[in-house]
Amino acid sequence: MKRLSDIGEDSLIERLVHRLDRGGESGDRVVVGPGDDCAVVDVGRPGLYQLLKTDSLVEGVHYLAETPAAKVGWKAVARVISDFAAMGGWPGQLLVTIAMPADKEVRYVDGLYRGMNKCAAAYGAEICGGETSSVPDGSAAVISVAGTGWVKKSRYVTRSGGQVGDLVLVTGKLGGSIKGKHLNFLPRLEASRWLVDQFRIRSMMDLSDGLARDLPRLAMASDCGFLIDKKMIPRNRGCDLSQALGDGEDYELLLTVSRRTAAKLCRDWSHAFPALPLTVIGELTDKASGEALPGQLGGWSHFSASNG
Amino acid sequence: MKRLSDIGEDSLIERLVHRLDRGGESGDRVVVGPGDDCAVVDVGRPGLYQLLKTDSLVEGVHYLAETPAAKVGWKAVARVISDFAAMGGWPGQLLVTIAMPADKEVRYVDGLYRGMNKCAAAYGAEICGGETSSVPDGSAAVISVAGTGWVKKSRYVTRSGGQVGDLVLVTGKLGGSIKGKHLNFLPRLEASRWLVDQFRIRSMMDLSDGLARDLPRLAMASDCGFLIDKKMIPRNRGCDLSQALGDGEDYELLLTVSRRTAAKLCRDWSHAFPALPLTVIGELTDKASGEALPGQLGGWSHFSASNG
What we know:
disordered C terminus; homodimer; CATH 3.30.1330.10; six-stranded mixed β-sheet; 8 helices; alpha+beta
């Protein structure tokens, strides 16, 4: 009898995706379906596609019961905004679902919303509804944020547009997020807008599960392999290579561009974002000659028994 | 120290709504914010508003661990479609969030998706993504469905449009949903479309928590009181009045129309939907002269210690 822990998150999503029915009758057209940071839908708005995203935080998995509520709220919204940034877009409206035990303090929920509103306001998102539900006593709280966003039709970036020979770049520094950054990170919304407006970004995603898991996903979606120069990986202070690769929750942008684009991009970047590193860490290869990074180097997988 | 169980679901939502920031920068305009069945957003699509909705099912609250997975999946999607119907609209795209323990059988998740896809396909909705997450062992599973829908700008119906003197009508029969109907109910999508296309429906909602809780909500949103004729309330076989009022999960439409509209509506209805009752159960009054129905007659409230 197979359990979720036997197959892991990626396999589970793959199973589900194949079962999805495609056939909306609203006159909308799904441009990008499951498997990317957001779904992309043509809803008939001139020049723009709609982005759809849902993301949840589970107590005991993504945060601890003793974590200050406002920080949890910030994180819940910031993760969704990071996914809009990963597509080259920006947020529109958000809906918030809170499922928690009835003995939770009202003050805690107030704190959650304070953090969510602060993050939404900082990034131009609008919380316009949601719902609350109880869970049985002793069950973990689940906070889920669903949102719409927008992206210019000519500028949206997926995980699957990478090409053999592209250089692989990453914003910021990796590793050690668990020491606090995962609760107050700044989604790379401004950087993403700048990138897609100025350059032809071939593929992009945000780093949520660690480079060691996320780069193989991007490469696979682009039907490529990859080579990385491990010495080049920008690490946060006090982090070794395996932490930079595997800790996860970096919420930095991982992107690929042509070599020609990369030269100009790196020059212009340092003027536009002097305080934020942008580092070339490797390249996309054909599938046969890439390295086998996944698994061995860690990274976070839901349902996997071998986390860590 | 106040806990969620001390204040109940309605008060909680009211607290949160007052804290919500309004100020999206996407050029969209929120037409109806929190507190109705869906949020309504003007996204610049000619003739149509977008509807936004999120709704979750919690194991042990909305269904049992031993409930067949496909039925749980049907219910999860059908509840969201019922909310689109409640506004006079129809569904577009759906995103599915599944948070469950890693020891859940893969077969169970397959069944969930089978049920969700069946319901989505039956009502013209399109599942275009979502995410999966683990919850700590022993925690209740949470299934959340977020969706976009559409409604004609000239036809959307809220809870707040009722007027003194309106007649109050309900589709179908009430009570006893727990015996099975709550798992395989048919959202009143077709009936709702017919109603809003043919008639001026002043206010509408779907009955999820029982008439005894939901009618006061509609009346309050419309700044009215209400009088109902308890003998007129259509009951499912084997249900007494208190069950018809308080069981909840009926997923029928509750609506109000002017007296003049009601006469023609009831005649035409029986030709259009011969198998589905539509019953006048009362009227909206001014606030001072209505009856005090809530509380005493039951109905389901999350977080309330006095459910039953």
